[in-house]
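Rather than argue in generalities, we have chosen a single entry, letters for residues, whole numbers for local backbone shapes, without further comment.
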Amino acid sequence: MQRRFIYNFFIFLLIFAVALLLPVILLIDQNSKVLISELDNLSPLTPEQKLVYGRFVNTLRDNLVSMSFYVLMAAFLISLLLGRKLIKPIRELYKGALSIKEGNLDVALKAAEGDELREVTTAFNEMAMALRKKTDELIWKERYVSMMTDPLWVLDTDNTVMDINPAFTRLFGYEREEIVGSSCFDLADEENERILRRNIGLKEYGVEDRGDSSAYEVSILSKYGEGVPVLVSGAPIFTEKEEVIARIGIMKDFRRETLLRKELREASDQRRVMMDSMPDVLLVVDRELKILMANKAAREISHGDIIRRHCYEVYHSVPMDCKAALGRDCPVLEVFRTGEHASTVEESLEMEKLSYRETAAYPIKDESGQVKSAIVISRDITEKKRFEEEIELKNKELTALLGISKVLNRSLRAEEIFTPVLDKIIELFRMDGGGIFFIDEEGKELACRYHKGLSREYVNSTGRMPVGEDIPGRVAATGQAFTSPDLLNDPRALESKFLHAGIRACATFPVIGREKPIGVLCIFSFSPHLFTQEEERVLNSVGGITAMAFENIRLYEKMRLLYQDQRLRRSEEHKEFLDIASALAATVETKDMLDTALVMLRKYLRAEFAWFLEMDETGTLVLKSAPDEPFIEGTPVYPPDQDSIEHASLERRGPVIVPDLEKSGYISGPLLSEKNFRSAYAFPVHLDGRAQAVMTFFGSQCREPGEEDIFFLQMVAGILGMAIDRARSYEKYGGERRDI
């Protein structure tokens, strides 16, 4: 570089010297010729003179050429000296430029006094300092961009990606080389592409980029095809002439926010569905009594938009709160005043019917415990009120019925039951009197057995009536209740004997037992009285309880008589059992023992015929005893395969009862073919621990013994078996003794 600079500087001086000397030489040569020509014109010159003048001009020319050579040499020397002086600062500038090129921005050149390039060096140093400052700023900005957690892209005016930051790569997966040069619209599906085009200023969408900043939500496709929701904050990049040359977009990962928003939306939808599913009116009211939220039921009864409107204006059509306008207690105001739950019940008359509405308010408090708003729930409790009233009436009814039931359960004697029951009913309904009528056993006449409030003479004269006559008789005949608030104005009671006793109101209910009337319950008043449905239900229930008590009394009487009969029968059975046991104990011979037992048992059962059969080694049933009959002992009766009642009893090892032999299918055998027996009872007898004998009783009528008779015969069969075993052992032992 130094040689090239000196060479260029020498050429410059040489050209400058030639340019300076050449005109001088040409000018002197031209002027000399002009001078000679003018002298020749003045006076012709001799050849010698012309020769002299010619030599002078040539000498002058040669001297000028020589002088030019020296001038050029002087210029060369001067250029060499000046070049060396100038080349040093230029060399420093060159080295500084190379250092800056290599990235060393800490270059500072020294400018000596009298240096021709001092200003240039100073400007170079200032440039290097400014460049270092700008470079440091760019480095820090690049670090900022690189350390950003939010993705960033830079788009040119054609919406092509010019640059991205590392966060963009981390979120979407694209490397810088993969994404730079691509259209931003390639990173979105069809729907999100429209969002991008509307927000980055495209004229085809009617949007002109005026350099305004924007913020919008969009979903960017990642490298793996997944849509990532982001919030883009876009801003233009201007030139000095305020022309937009690019756009920068900073993206906020909105996946969590989108998920939270979705959850909030779902929670809001669920809350709205839950609120709208409630049949009761539900509101959320602020401290100004303005409605913030309302469910479907609240909106339907208000017929319009009620949000941000005052609750008293919507539901009560008053210009101020209910307490000030209507003088009613407002639970919402109470909640804001006390911070505690409050409720009220409003009573109103709608379509001539009394209705009730309960309004309850609950506080909604912030973290500091201050009540910010209130939840108001309003429901129609008319049915609940009516139900509570019915429950109260039911309780009264049950209390009355319980008291009557206690009276009925005290005794099983009619006189100790029905008189107190009648007193309880008259007291419960605040009547003047009453009576209990019962139908006789033939079902033709109705008699007043128990009464109160009527004279004995009247009861004796009119207390008995045929079933079907007068009010009690008709109720007993039809089983239908009769109630009248005023008999004088009731055409059904024009001929009733109740009118002669001064009775005005009466209620008569049937006492039904086992699906048919057994009596009548009647209460009356000497003044008009309207019987309510509840009173009629109680009287109907009392009639049922009275019927049960009457049936219980009847059952008790029957059971008492049955017990007496059973006791007498047990006594007779016990006597018969003792007689049979005594007879068996007193008899030693087996034949006599069997005859005696069969005769006594036949008499006990009222049977026409009885016999005792025993099974031999072949399985044939052989006759052993048949009292009062011309049958020979040892006669085979049933072969082993004969289907008889005796075989069935031995196989079952228990009694076989046949109330009707014709329908049973059992064969009676040839010995009984001429006898027309209809029923038979067979009982097995155990001999030597095995069921190998049977006693059978036959009757001419179809009948079945009772359980007591069967049990008694089984006991006798057991004793008879033991007696036979004893007798046979005795006979055997006695025979052996006689042989000895």
The radius of gyration is 69 Å. DSSP finds 20 helices and 22 strands in the chain. Confidence is low (pLDDT under 50) at residues 202-208, 735-740. Residues 47-101 form the longest helix (55 residues).
